[in-house]
User: Which sequence fits this backbone?
């Protein structure tokens, strides 16, 4: 793995819909100001936002860690929550256990994990029911211009 | 990198360093050092927020003067629909058009046709667009530049269709060069503009193609002249060129937005930079679904709120509604012309819009990260008061400037008390 250039962690509060999306907003600004090229930035923000939303919707609390190397951007999202009993099922397009209330807020289309997969170069989900979930995503940088 | 042109200039002699511009700038592109304002060109999006707030009038819009038009043999005005909302309730677009002729233009273009054409082209583009959605209108140059600077990941969502003013320029040159036997470069296509941003979009289009227009004249620049000439025109029949019909100058569709026919289920009209930024933040996260097209205008209320307009937004809006309700609909010739042109013209954008390269990117990623870390450390020593006395709009900006080697950390008065005495020399009465 290429040398780490930057590592920053952000707290995510579960059930706090008011603040939902702020962490992905913050990391977007960091990476944009660092001049990360547009295509990678776009994919990254989508992955970060969906991961953040899943913590907000399903978990008590979580942490998003951003790790930048010269070759890629990595996101590690770790939460304390119910965990995912069947990860394969969770990745099915349209599969969602979101409540009606969440859906009314405009979340819970069951596209979060599929979109994260589509927009990252590597995506790994580990989960332990009753304890929590770890999502690790890697997005390669096209150039370091 | 080619030099970036901007739609206004800061007159250093007139500048008193009062920092109103620096505080108003949404992209933090202004610094005030030694009592004088200056621009970081890469960050400026030409919104003109600085223009109206300068207490000494040191910032002015760059538009062209009439003298500059003398080199053309035939001068055609393309009037922004906003122009017609600036006068009295009884003044029709046709009268305003006649006043423009009286002012020295040889013709006034039937701009409503071009607006209708682009309206259609947008609808067609939205229908066949594979994604990503929503598409975003590009007719407001500030929106295009905002995306280039602050939302680089969204450039591909800017709709790849020409702005109506551009295709107006193209068609009028074609028509008049044919009718009058002139070369296209002997014909001037001049936009009567509600803002300096459109001037700059002509001088230096974001899509890096050459504009079909030759310059822009601000509405406020011609307002008084039009007013006095219009009062002298008694009836439309008076003039030999009086063939103009109001409906061909001003589009008669619903008032919100520039594109009258786009259905409201498909699109969302958005005005005002603050609101646009909120929505863009959501788009970037993939949070906005089911919307196919966003028509965005940097000015509150759209172009009738542009900073080179004269009438206040609300009066202009009521004038607009009144005009549209009472204007005769254009005749069958209008529809025919739209059909004819739609069949033969290509409306796709020439060139493409790319993210703007910001100054810091001349160094490699490792160095950029180092600067960021350094800026973070530096900002811990700053009071986070954003007083502006260092010459940067926020403490964070100051820390970044220092990390990039553009400023001295000691410019902060909290770190070097004697700075106050230096500042006193610039700000003493
Ligand atoms: N961090 C998480 N903790 C617990 N369950 C999760 C987590 N992330 C996803 N899930 C489960 O996976 C399902 C699918 O997730 P996703 O694809 O993001 O769609 P959505 O969030 O719209 O339901 C969720 O409905 C939920 O049951
Ligand atoms: S909204 Fe219209 S007037 Fe305002 S900056 Fe954009 S194009 Fe110019
Ligand atoms: Mg989800």
Assistant:
């Amino acid at each position: 793995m290429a040398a780490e250039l930057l590592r920053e962690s952000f707290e995510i509060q579960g059930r706090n819909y008011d603040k939902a999306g702020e962490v992905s907003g913050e990391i977007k600004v960091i990476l944009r100001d660092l001049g990360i090229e547009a295509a990678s930035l776009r994919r990254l923000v989508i992955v970060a936002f969906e991961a953040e939303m899943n913590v907000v919707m399903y978990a008590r609390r979580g942490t998003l860690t951003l790790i930048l190397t010269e070759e890629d951007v990595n996101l590690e999202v770790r939460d304390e929550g119910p965990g995912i009993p069947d990860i394969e099922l969770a990745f099915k397009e349209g599969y969602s256990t979101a409540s009606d209330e969440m859906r009314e807020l405009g979340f819970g289309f069951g596209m979060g994990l599929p979109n994260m997969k589509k927009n990252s170069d590597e995506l790994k989900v580990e989960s332990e029911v009753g304890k929590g979930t770890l999502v690790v995503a890697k997005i390669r940088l096209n150039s370091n211009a | 990198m080619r030099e970036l042109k901007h739609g206004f200039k800061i007159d250093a002699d007139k500048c008193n360093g009062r920092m109103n511009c620096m505080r108003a700038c949404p992209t933090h592109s202004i610094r005030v050092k030694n009592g004088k304002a200056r621009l970081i060109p890469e960050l400026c999006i030409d919104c003109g927020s600085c223009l109206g707030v300068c207490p000494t009038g040191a910032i002015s819009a760059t538009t062209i003067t009439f003298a500059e038009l003398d080199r053309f043999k035939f001068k055609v005005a393309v009037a922004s629909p906003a122009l017609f909302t600036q006068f009295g309730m009884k003044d029709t677009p046709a009268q305003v058009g006649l006043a423009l002729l009286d002012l020295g233009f040889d013709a006034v273009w039937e701009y409503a046709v071009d607006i209708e054409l682009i309206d259609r082209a947008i609808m067609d583009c939205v229908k066949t667009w594979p994604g990503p959605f929503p598409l975003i209108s590009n007719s407001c140059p500030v929106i295009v530049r905002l995306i280039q600077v602050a939302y680089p990941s969204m450039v591909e969502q800017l709709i790849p269709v020409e702005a109506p003013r551009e295709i107006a320029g193209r068609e009028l040159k074609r028509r008049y060069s044919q009718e009058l036997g002139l070369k296209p470069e002997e014909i001037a296509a001049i936009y009567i503009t509600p803002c300096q941003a459109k001037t700059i979009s002509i001088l230096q289009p974001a899509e890096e193609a050459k504009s079909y227009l030759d310059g822009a004249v601000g509405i406020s620049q011609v307002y008084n002249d039009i007013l006095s000439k219009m009062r002298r025109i008694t009836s439309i029949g008076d003039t030999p060129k009086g063939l103009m019909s109001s409906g061909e100058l001003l589009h008669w569709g619903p008032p919100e937005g520039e594109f009258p026919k786009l259905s409201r289920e498909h699109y969302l009209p958005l005005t005002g930079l603050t609101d646009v930024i909120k929505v863009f933040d959501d788009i970037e996260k993939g949070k906005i679904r089911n919307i196919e097209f966003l028509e965005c205008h940097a000015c509150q209320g759209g172009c009738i709120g542009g900073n080179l307009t004269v009438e206040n937004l609300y009066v202009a809006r009521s004038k607009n509604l009144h005009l549209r309700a009472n204007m005769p609909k254009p005749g069958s010739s209008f529809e025919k012309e739209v059909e004819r042109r739609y069949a033969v013209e290509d409306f796709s954008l020439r060139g493409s819009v790319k993210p703007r390269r910001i100054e810091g990117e001349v160094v490699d990623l490792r160095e950029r990260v180092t600067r960021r870390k350094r800026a973070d450390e530096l900002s811990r020593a700053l009071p986070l008061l954003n007083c502006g006395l260092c010459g940067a709009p926020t403490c964070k900006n100051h820390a970044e400037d220092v990390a990039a080697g553009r400023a001295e950390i000691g410019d902060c008065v909290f770190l070097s008390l004697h700075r106050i005495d230096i500042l006193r020399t610039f700000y003493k009465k």
Q: What stands out?
A: The radius of gyration of chain B is 23 Å.
